[in-house]
Design a protein that fits this description.
This protein is mainly alpha-helical. The chain has four helices and three strands; from the N terminus they run H-E-H-H-E-E-H. It has a single domain, classed as Winged helix-like DNA-binding domain superfamily/Winged helix DNA-binding domain (Arc Repressor Mutant, subunit A, Orthogonal Bundle). Strands 1-3-2 form a three-stranded antiparallel beta sheet. It is globular.
Length: 85
């Protein structure tokens, strides 16, 4: 029997793999829910965790895409953090 932890780990691998295999993939939360067949709460928690871990970033319009350290938005965010220190 598969545990919840194993299911969550499999889902996390699947989601990260899709973002790694498709550079530029950009999904709204609703699109992500449909793509991965998730309930709203589970999808929101997954996306938040991936943003918190800096694997994903959320765009100004609310979509999610892979975090790329050299990306202009990432550089602006780092500059703001430095200015606050």
């Amino acid at each position: 029997m598969t545990s919840e932890r194993e299911v969550a780990a499999d889902l996390l691998r699947r989601v990260t793999s899709e973002f790694l295999e498709m550079p530029g993939l950009c999904l709204t939360e609703a699109q992500a829910r449909r793509l991965w067949g998730l309930e709203a709460e589970a999808c929101s928690a997954l996306l938040r965790a991936l943003v918190d871990s800096q694997f994903l970033r959320q765009t100004r319009d609310g979509a999610f895409m892979r975090f790329e350290p050299g990306h202009a938005a990432s550089s602006r965010r780092a500059a703001r953090r430095t200015a606050l220190i």
